[in-house]
Amino acid sequence: MSKPGNGAHKPNGTRPLRRSQAWFDNPGNPDMTALYLERYMNFGISQEEFQSGRPIIGIAQTGSDLSPCNRHHLDLAKRVREGIREAGGIALEFPVHPIQETGKRPTAGLDRNLAYLGLVEVLYGYPLDGVVLTIGCDKTTPACLMAAATVNIPAIALSVGPMLNGWFRGERTGSGTIVWKARELMAAGEIDYAGFVSLVASSAPSTGYCNTMGTATTMNSLAEALGMQLPGSAAIPAPHRDRQEVAYLTGKRIVEMVDEDLKPSDILTRDAFINAIRVNSAIGGSTNAPIHLNGLARHVGVELTIDDWQTYGEEIPLLVNLQPAGEYLGEDYHHAGGVPAVVNQLMSRGLINEDALTVNGKTMGENCRDAKILDEKVIWPIDRPLKEHAGFRVLRGNLFDSAIMKLSVISQEFRDRYLSNPKDPNAFEGPAVVFDGPEDYHARIDDPDLHIDETTVLFMRGAGPIGYPGAAEVVNMRAPDYLLKRGIHSLPCIGDGRQSGTSGSPSILNASPEAAAGGGLAILRTGDRVRIDLGKGTADILVPNEELARRRTELEASGGYKYPDHQTPWQEIQRSMIGQMETGAVLEPAVRYQRIAQTKGIPRDNH
Ligand code: FES
Ligand code: MG
User: Fold this and answer.
1) Closest-CA residue to 162 (of 334, 328, 322, 288)
2) CATH, domain range 54-165+205-369
3) Phi, psi of 466 (to 5 degrees)
4) How far apart are the first and last CA of the chain?
5) Per CATH, which fold does 393-558 belong to?
6) ipTM score here?
7) Which of 72, 107, 138, 498 to mutate to test ligand 1, by most ligand atoms within 8 A of the CB atom?
8) Nearest 5°: phi and psi at 460?
9) Which of 68, 155, 242, 319 has the fewest Cβ atoms nearer than 10 Å?
């Protein structure tokens, strides 16, 4: 197979100059070369090594004490270094702004673009020829991929891997998913707080990221489906021996990629994104995936819309039986064959663009042609899937321009209650109860005066990229305690925030534009009737247009939808330039900067 690129080693020294040579090996500027060299020689690498044509490889380290999901990367990086060295490169490890999904307030969603921005600056401004992206916890994956795409130097991702399975009294307990269940059990009085904590802690038994098909497993699987990490590597549990081995192989491979000049723009093509959309449906992937992939596509300059998720993804069946849509967890996914087995099933129906190139220099088709399902309880064959039509449905109407619903988590209970009218099997109507942020929801959800019943549709607004700020995972709301006690668990939830990928709630999410950007949610009132038609893909407030227009005039006269003040400089800066979730919630001015290693050349000398 022919490989792209122009940087292959040629005999007699005709290899094009490496990027890092502009710093370390620049005969035209010996003073500056000495200045650049001396400080990096400080930790024991000699001038000879720096000037022998070895690629300088960054290890973008996302693990730290503040980022426990990715903390194992501190160990894995040692094996990455050995691989880099073995292949003739020099490794320079550096920290990435930490993003911890469950630790960062007000939401880790605020930090994806900050980590992106920082990493772009590092990859561009330092002597790096290639980079290993240490991915894992939800937003570390898109932040790293987006930055590598913007700079466009050779890059390979390495997952930290999922945690081992959680267990409690003989049953699998999945990270995140168990929290939603434990919350309901406690609200219904079935467990006390001590029981709540031990149930939740049982789901996190080792190092690694969430073991459910939450956003972490989703995004790590999609990084592989996009072709950005070695085949078969995404699902290996963090503590496994193979995880160390794949770290070593990743280090070796990035050095070759630099020689081949195999860059993110060669891999992240529209074909690759379509593959990822289809894999996302087949794995029962998170509703955060469209935000991150649409954002990544914009940074790499590929056309990708929210409608592509329905066009290419909706018809795809669910194959992977992982919580929250199914039963099993990360270890089981790995033992069943991981991403290659899923891709192979999709290939058998012609649903994969097999020519899409991947980081190992081979195509997706070549990598997955022989991948077998090794446990059909966990990965189901495509001819008898767990569920048909497991993708996302895109909805639009006077409530928002777009929002999505994950079809694979619609439960039988939900179907029976809301989608059982034989004349209208895809639509439901009900009165809205509107909450302005999670504090309002927590304060009022159990208030009997709200008269919530099984026909109520719960709304959460003020939770988007501008309103929250950062778009928080707060849309999935439990039913009030008086309904839980009657066995009613899930009411339809709609909002302009996100939902944890570990939640199985059939919510309508990522509404764009958000209330804070003047979306229809801003003029919705408690008591309005709303109609959701999943068949037609519509979501509307059933209030006359004149009344809606009157409310909008009133809202605008009052200065727009109110949200909390900025608390940090970054909150203010990001609010001033972030786009909506439909288009990736990216920093809009950053989209103008593409492939900057090629389009902007090498930055100026610093002295
Ligand atoms: Fe970090 Fe789930 S909280 S991976
Ligand atoms: Mg999350």
Assistant:
1) 334
2) 3.40.50.2300
3) -90, -45
4) 44
5) Glucose Oxidase; domain 1 (3.50.30)
6) 0.93
7) 138
8) -125, 120
9) 242
